[in-house]
Write a structure and sequence with these properties.
This protein is of the alpha/beta class and 456 residues long. The protein folds into three domains: 2-90, Rossmann fold; 100-309, Mur-like, catalytic domain (UDP-N-acetylmuramoyl-L-alanine:D-glutamate ligase), CATH 3.40.1190.10; 319-455, Alpha-Beta Complex (Protein-Tyrosine Phosphatase, Chain A), CATH 3.90.190.20. It is 32% helix and 24% strand. It has helices at 11-22, 38-44, 76-83, 91-98, 114-127, 197-209, 224-231, 281-296, 301-309, 337-351, 365-368, 373-376, 399-403, 415-425, 443-455, and strands at 2-6, 26-31, 48-51, 64-67, 88-90, 104-109, 133-135, 147-148, 154-158, 163-165, 168-171, 180-183, 216-220, 238-243, 250-254, 261-266, 269-275, 319-324, 327-332, 355-360, 385-389, 409-412, 430-435. It has a ten-stranded mixed sheet, with helices on both faces. Strands 18-19-23-20-21-22 form a six-stranded mixed sheet, with helices on both faces. Strands 3-2-1-4-5 form a five-stranded parallel sheet, with helices on both faces. Helix 5 (114-127) packs across helix 8 (281-296). The protein is globular. Belongs to the MurCDEF family. Mpl subfamily.
């Protein structure tokens, strides 16, 4: 079968393309944002990529078109599919129909930490010899690709609450029918499609309704928004977890302030001790949730602890790109004030008094709309300085964020000027954290190049 994917370079659709290729299909795709690491993965998999959405890409007609949720009516390729009656489906529905039947699905949902937690869980099962399939919305360093079919019934999926397609406004995750479900956390996000938190909670409850009575739901003990979801009705055993002083059946006690080591207690009794490369309370929480889910399919906490010790992290999640004479440059996918805050707090706990410079492009749909603008400045209190970049397509000006910032901040509208300012701030041991959920104009490599030039 020839499958053409519209919006193929999105993290979800790119992973889907690799699964379709592994099933033996001829896979092509088109997109406007063709850049690494996903474009590299797809090309290495032998998947032909086309720039833009020209109807010519669909001539001769493929057997099936999988339409990404970024596509809308008026898109020339979408209109061509409809006008010519070419069979089409959404990405989540294709996954449900062609990959997940008969599988034990382990799904990871929540506003934050889905990619990291799903990566940890897939790696734990792989380390334990369970050879799972997986689809992760990012590139984990423990696997060569972001998706694979696997050799056993187990399948780990990052379960996103974003809508499925222009013709299916349900959240992606309602298609997956997990037996093991992690609910990491829940906050208001995706303001472009959800009017309020209650609308997101409604979708999460649709997901809860699909988990069988002999399954398991793993949820934090102290997340009010998630508790409200579960209070609407839950027909599945639930195990609760927390970090440090939180309550719950499972608790992680920090052995180091930065979260690089922690002890796991189950009903008050020691279950495992983890020493790993990750930092931050949020990653401790992610690792604990993955441990509980893995236990549900037979992996002991001690084996999970060994697996987490060998977990290498995920690209674009505090990924250290370079260390130029003590100045480190990180790439982070932060898309929400909470993600910015927890990431910077984790780094601060790790580096102590060393300088942290946050370089932030508010690029996610919700941040572009200004929904979280009142919280952005406060999210950066662990940085010594913040450089804010004003993209051309942001619907509001960042001047108020800068003017009311609790730490020294500056607003830039030119990438070259931004790099110049970053260089001027770098002295002694410095950590530059570049935060964006897009390519950010290639600023990462441009900054590293300039650091290298200035160090000669």
């Amino acid at each position: 079968m020839h499958i053409h994917i519209l919006g193929i370079c999105g993290t979800f659709m790119g992973s889907l393309a690799q699964l379709a290729k592994a099933l033996g299909h001829r896979v092509t795709g088109s997109d406007t944002n063709v850049y690494p690491p996903m474009s590299t993965q797809l090309e290495q998999a032998g998947i032909e990529l086309m720039q833009g959405f020209a109807p010519a890409h669909l001539q001769p007609a493929p057997d099936l078109v999988v339409i990404g949720n970024a596509m809308s009516r008026g898109n020339p390729a979408v209109e061509y599919v409809l006008d010519n009656n070419i069979p089409y489906t959404s990405g989540p529905q294709w996954l449900r129909d062609h990959v997940l039947p008969g599988r034990w699905v382990l799904a990871v949902a929540g506003t934050h930490g889905k990619t990291s937690t799903a990566s940890m869980l897939a790696w734990i099962l792989d380390y334990a010899g369970m050879a799972p399939g997986y689809l992760i919305g990012g590139v984990t360093r423990n696997f060569p690709t972001s998706a694979r079919l696997g050799d056993t019934p187990f399948f780990v999926v990052e379960a996103d609450e974003y809508d499925s397609a222009f013709f299916d406004k349900r959240s992606k995750f309602v298609h997956y029918q997990p037996r093991t479900l992690i609910l990491n956390n829940l906050e208001f996000d995706h303001a472009d499609i959800f009017p309020d938190l209650a609308a997101i909670q409604r979708q999460f409850h649709h997901l809860v309704r699909t988990v069988p009575g002999n399954g398991l739901i793993v949820a934090p003990a102290n997340d009010e928004a998630l508790q409200q979801v579960l209070d609407q009705g839950c027909w599945t055993p639930t195990q609760r977890f927390g970090v440090q002083d939180d309550s719950g059946e499972w608790v992680a006690e920090l052995l180091s302030a930065d979260g690089s080591s922690f002890r796991v207690l189950h009903n008050g009794e020691p279950a495992a001790t983890v020493h790993w490369q990750q930092t931050g309370h949020h990653n401790v929480s992610n690792g604990l949730a993955a441990m509980i889910a893995a236990r549900h399919v037979g992996v002991t906490p001690s084996i999970t602890a060994d697996a987490l010790a060998a977990f290498e992290g995920v690209k674009r999640r505090m990924e250290c790109l370079a260390d130029v004479h003590g100045i480190r440059v990180y790439d982070d996918f932060a898309h929400h004030p909470t993600a910015i805050k927890t990431t910077l707090a984790g780094l601060r706990a790790k580096v102590g008094g060393e300088k942290i410079i946050a370089i932030i492009e508010p690029r996610s749909n919700t941040m572009r709309m200004g929904v979280h603008k009142d919280n952005l400045g406060l999210a950066c209190t662990d940085a010594d300085a913040v450089l804010w970049f004003q993209p051309a397509n942001v619907d509001w000006a960042l001047d108020d964020v800068v003017n009311h910032s609790p730490v020294p901040s500056k607003l830039l509208r030119d990438l070259d000027e931004l790099i110049h300012c970053a260089l001027a701030l770098a002295e002694g041991p410095t950590h530059m954290v570049i935060m964006s959920n897009g390519g950010f104009g290639g600023v990462h490599q441009k900054l590293i190049h300039q650091l290298q030039v200035h160090s000669l």
